[in-house]
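subagent[fold] <- orchestrator: predict structure for attached chain, return C-alpha cells only, no commentary.
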Amino acid sequence: GDRQPVLGCNVFPDGTYFDLVNKAGTVPMRLRNMTLSGFQGVISYVDTSLSDLLFTGITAEAVVIVSGETILDQVTMVIGTPVGVTILYGATGIVRRTHMFGLTDAGIQTGGVAILENVLMADGTGADGIRVENSGTLEMSYSTVAGNTGIGIDNSQGGNVIAVDRSIVHGNGGDDLLAVPCASVAWSSVGVPDCSAVNNNLAADPL
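subagent[fold] -> orchestrator:
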C-alpha cells in the first residue's frame, strides 16, 4: 500500500521516533512503508529490518545501530539529513538498494561492520560518503559514491576496508579514496587515487 507518514518525531525525550530496545523471540524487529521526519529517526539495539522507508527533515542521524544486526533495504534519505547511518562498535549494518541524496555530514559512518550492496550516496554538501573509524570494517559492492563535497571513502582513522567491488567512487570534492589501498578495490572506477594499474579498475569518469 501507500507509504504511511510518521511526522514530528518527539515521542521520546531526545526526539527519537523509534528507540528499538527489546523484541520478542528471535525474529528481527520490522519497520516498513513509512516516512520519518524530526530530530532522529531510528536507534536500534536489537536485530532490526528497515524497508521501504523515507527519511526527510531529520536533523541528526537517520539510523543509529548500537548493537545487533540491522538490515536496510529500499530506504531513501534526502536533502538536509546530516548522517544517514551510524554503526557503532560491535554492531552490523547491512545496507541494500538504498539512496542518500544531499546529506550534510556523512552517508555512512561505521565503527562496526558495514556491508553495502547497490547503494547510492550522491551530492552531499559538506559531506563525506563513507567514514570508517579505527574499529570499523567496510565491504561495498555495486555501489556509487559520487559528487559529494567531502571525501568519497575516508579510512584515515585506520579501519579495515575489506573490499570495494564493482563500484563507482568518483567526482567527490576531497580524495575519492583516503587511506584505502588500491589492492582492496576491484572492477571499479575511482578518480583519486588512480587505481587503474590493479584489479581491472578504471580511472576515467564514468558519469
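orchestrator: received. Logging for downstream: The first strand starts at residue 4 and ends at 9. Residues 4-13 have pLDDT under 50 and may be disordered.
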